[in-house]
Design brief:
462 residues, alpha/beta, 5-stranded parallel sheet, 10% strand
Length: 462
């Protein structure tokens, strides 16, 4: 069962399972995916997929303009939890369910970035902790299903995180068992002994589906698809081999099954995801709306190169089987794929879930090692300027972030109190008290507010 069926899951994990189901010997036909939607907006996915029996098209767009479209058939059912919570619990508690995988976004794990501790103050969590509560959160559903399995004498399923968080398996273990400790300490002990939480690294750029894609797929293939997916040719999945109830033989379709995901995960989060953040806020301030345009801007391209080469890469150890110079070259090629038409607003959304997990760890490691943080500080400064919600021409725009009500006033206040934004310790810890970071941060922020983004980049890297 997969919680959080969106474009990325359908371009990535569901695609890999579909490849496996296609194998001629039929060895994988006992596997399939039941999607689960927990949020009210997930009704749209249900309504799109139900009339199509879960089938949808996946289009790969190559840099040279070549397109490949195939139908994906691994999503065999979809349950919308708000309409029928018991159906979801029954399926989760069934012995047929052996893996529960997650793409619930970085913010879905409900922990404070600065402390890593579970936030029991969340309203949905508080509601799920009430005796006899009908679950609302992923924690409520998973823990209640495990309680039922234990009472029925069944084993646990594996909880497999596929989100962009360092040590996502360990984070998932900590968050789900923390919730269980609050709900049922004995069950938490049982989970600690019986439930597996493998870590994984997932990578495939998957922009939001545009209305034009629906028409394009029909024109090229004759298929009417209410919810097509478009993606790049590149895909990677590195998965820790730690499962308690079996798993598909994903290594047969290109998944790297390893003992330790951490080196790959750190590489991807700090190089790819961190670079995306560098492109997002400067790109927006420069007026770029597509990622390929931001990538091809010479000054912004140079900032990303400096961030990768001088700040992010030095924090990485060896990555088995990976040539980091080649990996970085490939990233620029992927970012510059015009035919994907990935958008700057997609990269800029939910920064409070992203910067603390992808860029701040680079800063901390560099400060500890005495290395440079000029580019990383510039990224955070550009986020601060972006979070004011007003562009360089005085036009207002929406800051899409779950913490926008808190962040926008802080960003605006930092015009009078320069460190106000950094003093949010939930996001930045003690960085506001680290001169090695605050000095380049304040320098860049001051330039952004006086001479604008382009002149700032020219001063930094021109």
């Amino acid at each position: 069962m997969h919680v959080g069926v969106g474009g990325f899951h359908r371009a990535h994990q569901a695609m890999y399972v579909d490849r496996l189901l296609e194998e001629a010997d039929g060895s994988a036909v006992d596997w399939g995916i039941c999607g689960v939607g927990l949020m009210p907006d997930d009704a749209r996915m249900r309504d799109a997929l139900a009339p199509q029996d879960g089938l949808y098209t996946l289009t790969q767009r190559h840099p040279d303009g070549h397109e490949e479209t195939r139908v994906i058939g691994s999503l065999v059912d979809y349950l919308f939890a708000p309409a029928d919570p018991e159906a979801v619990l029954d399926r989760l508690a069934s012995p047929d369910t052996r893996i529960v995988s997650l793409t619930i976004t970085e913010g879905g794990y409900n922990f404070a970035p600065a402390t890593g501790r579970f936030d029991e103050r969340d309203p949905g969590v508080r509601a799920d902790l009430e005796p006899g509560a009908v679950p609302r959160t992923v924690f409520g559903y998973v823990v209640e299903a495990l309680r039922r399995r234990r009472e029925a004498g069944l084993g646990s399923f594996t909880v497999m995180s596929c989100d962009n968080i360092a040590g996502n398996g360990e984070v998932a273990r900590e968050m789900f068992t923390s919730f269980a400790c609050l709900k049922d300490p004995d069950l938490a002990d049982w989970m600690s002994e019986h439930t597996a939480f493998p870590s994984s690294m997932v990578d495939r750029i998957t922009p939001a589906t545009s209305p034009e894609l629906v028409d394009d797929v029909e024109r090229r293939t004759g298929l009417v698809d209410r919810s097509p997916v478009v993606t790049e040719p590149f895909t990677q999945w590195v998965l820790e081999d730690h499962f308690v109830a079996g798993r598909p033989r994903l290594e047969r379709v290109g998944v790297q099954i390893v003992d330790d995901v951490a080196p790959y995960e750190r590489m991807k989060l700090r190089l790819l995801n961190g670079s995306h953040q560098a492109l997002a806020y400067f790109g927006h301030l420069l007026g770029h709306r597509f990622v390929h345009d931001a990538t091809e801007d010479p000054l912004l391209h140079e900032l990303v190169r400096v961030y990768m080469d001088e700040e992010a890469e030095p924090t990485l150890g060896p990555v088995p089987g990976i040539d980091l110079a080649d990996y970085k070259r490939t990233l620029f090629e992927r970012f510059g794929n015009h035919h994907i038409a990935d958008t700057v607003p997609r990269l800029a959304a939910e920064a409070s879930d992203r910067i603390p997990k992808w860029v701040v760890p680079v800063v901390r490691d560099q400060l500890l090692a005495g290395g440079p943080v000029r580019a990383s500080a510039a990224v955070v400064a550009a986020w601060t300027r972006y979070a004011e919600g007003v562009d360089e021409h005085g036009r207002s725009f929406e800051v899409v972030d779950r913490l926008a009500d808190r962040l926008v006033p802080l960003a605006r206040r930092s015009r009078q109190e320069p460190l106000a934004f950094l003093q949010d310790e939930e996001l930045f810890g003690d960085l506001a008290r680290q001169p090695g970071f605050t000095e380049p941060y304040l320098h860049t922020l001051g330039l952004l507010r006086t001479v604008g983004a382009r002149a700032t980049l020219a001063a930094l890297v021109g």
